[in-house]
Structures are given as C-alpha cells and as structure tokens.
Fold this protein.
Amino acid sequence: VGVAGLSTLAPEAYPTSAAERAVLLAGEVAALTEAAGLTLLIPFTSRQEAEGRAAALDLALRRAQTSAAALAQELAAPASTLWRGLSDARARLSLDLSEVAGRLPAVQRLEPPARASALMLAQHLVGDDPGAVLAFAEDIVARNRLRHPASLGGDSVEVLL
C-alpha cells in the first residue's frame, strides 16, 4: 500500500497552511478507504497473505490518524471527523479481514528429507489423487521458487495446508 499523503511527506515539503494540510489529508483518507474496500475483493491464497495486507493498510490508516490528530490543534472539527472516520475504517478493516483470513489455509514450513521431490512431498501430504498431487506439487514449486522440482535439496519448504 503506497499512498503518498500528509503522513508520508518530508518536513520540507509539508504544506504551511492548515487548510492545505486538511485537503491533503482528506485526499489521503479517501485513497486509503478506497484501498481498504478493494482489499476485501482480493482473492488471497493464504492466511499470512491476508494478514500482511491488513497490517500494511492498518499502518497507513494509523499514520493518517496521527496526521489528523496533529491537524486538530488548528482545525478541530474537520480533523476530529477525519480521525473518527479513520478509527471506524480501521475497526471495519480489522473485522472484515480477520473473517477472510480465518477461512484461509495457513502457510507452513516443512523439513522434507534431503532426497525428496516436490511430487513425493505432495503425494505424502494430499494422498493418491493424481490431480490433487500434481496441483499441490505445482504450488510447492511456485511458492518456493524451486529450480529443480525433482530435488528439494534438504532445505525447508513452504506449503499451503
């Protein structure tokens, strides 16, 4: 999540008037709330992926809240409205993405034997269905960026269980 706004400006680029800061912060808040809404449409594959996205968005929303709190000294009413809206957005995002993440499988690290292949590991984990084994093996290769799927090389691998 990379939204350039009030909370990401260097001090020398900081707007001098409170009205300019309020407009910039309002734009940042609009972008962040749109990003939060669109995040709920992403088809995440793992719990960690969803939680990582939620953490990045929450950090951006917290930074915007800090900017709103600083702006409250000069423009109390608009800053207070923005701060409350950001607080509500953080709560909704946390609730919604927690629900999404809770239904997703977790990525786990396994230590396969040194001579194991992606197909052997996949068969061990999902059973004898050739379609399921092949799909799981392809996921192991892609997830771990394996050069040679016939040999895992004794390193730990990530699998989606």
